[in-house]
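User: For my dataset I need records formatted as: sequence, then structure tokens, nothing else. Please produce one.
Assistant:
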Amino acid sequence: MPVGAALAHASLVSSDPADGTTLTASPASISATFAEAFDTGRSSMELLGPDGATLATNAAAASATAESMTISGYGTLAPGLYSVRWTTITPSDNGIERGTLRFTIATTTASPSPTAGSGASSGGAGDIALPLVALGVLLAGGLAWFLRRSR
């Protein structure tokens, strides 16, 4: 048996979402691809919520061996840090690999919508300048009226 084959195990090659990724929306599914085929009956992957509770596990595979696993059907995930724990067992040598990958769903903040009757901008220098200009026009008009009246 070649030395490389004896040392090979079904270690994680890639995942979607990738480990350490920050997402702006909940993924529809989570998938992981491994370096070699694993025993689907003895290997597993589970999605853990921010509180550590198991939210979903991988679906049963159609074949005895595979090189990838997928989790789906968990609904929309709320903002927070999620973990995906996986275990693979290779059928040829019963080699066990375990790992955890993590991804974050970011909190999205909606920008405030303008209220009825207000301008399109909010919170800028224009919010102060417009009333000051209006006040200046009123004072100038009042002063002009007063000076005309006093003649």
